[in-house]
Amino acid sequence: MDAEDKTVVNVDEKSHSRRQRFFWLPNAITICGLFSGFYAIVQGMNHEFGLAAIGIFAAMIFDGLDGRVARLTQTQSAFGAQFDSLADMVAFGAAPALVLYEAELRSIGGKLAWVAAFIYVGCAALRLARFNTNSETMDKSYFQGLPSPAAAGVIAGFIWATTANDFQGLPWVAWALAVSLGFTMVSNIKYYSGKEINIRKAVPFSVVVLISFFVILVINLADNLPELLFLTFLSYFLSGFVVWIVNYVKNRNPKKNN
Fold it and tell me: Which pLDDT score is estimated for 250?
């Protein structure tokens, strides 16, 4: 082996070693998301519902990071995808249901309380399984059914907002949220994914203006962050129904659209 070949081998070995080190980075972020979901469950059991909600939102941040880091470092793997799905089940399935049960549903008593929590957990599991099996064939612009992080955001926002304002004691509202969010996750209602947005490409001026207004709104409402998060995720949840109704009306009146 001549010097040139040795140089190529050394470069390949260094590249492989670097990729192995980076391979652990997205999985480490996923572990942080898993810990955040576990933390939310523990805080819910301790009746620290505000901290539990923060744990769920922290899990959402880590969930948004791990996939992007894997793509940037070119370390995507089947193991990482499955690990991420299992972490999502804890953070966005079990944690919101258990925290909501302790915070609100328990006061209903009987089967109705835990059935609502289980409907949410079961539908979250089905939603994640369907996403894993259909992810390669689905339209990337839309989600089929409400994404589990968004459903968890509605519940976490509801819990955090009611806790921050000492306005707990809404078990039937919580029951309706758990059941409706659960069934919407496994529905065929389409939700905008935003995956086709590429920040490296030019965007319309109107989009820049909307983003600017949103940032200003967040800054001005920083003291009301729980309420802002709840309303944001609730609006996204309702947006799917609005789009479905609009499309249904258009399909019912095809002549008026021509």
Answer: 81
pLDDT in tens, 97-140: 999 999 999 999 888 999 999 999 999 999 999 888 876 666 67
pTM exceeds 0.70 for this model: yes
Tell me how far CA of residue 202 lies from CA of 134, 193, 194, 208, 232, in angstroms.
30, 19, 15, 10, 26
Rounded CA gap, 218 and 64, in Å?
19
Distance CA 56, CA 92 (A): 7
Domain ranges in the chain are 3-257
Report the pLDDT value the prediction gives residue 219, as an integer from 0 to 100: 66
Q: Which fold has domain 3-257?
A: Four Helix Bundle (Hemerythrin (Met), subunit A) (1.20.120)
Query: How far is it, in rounded angstroms, from Cα 184 to Cα 190?
Result: 10
3-state secondary structure of 109: coil
| Per-residue pLDDT at 223 exceeds 60 | yes
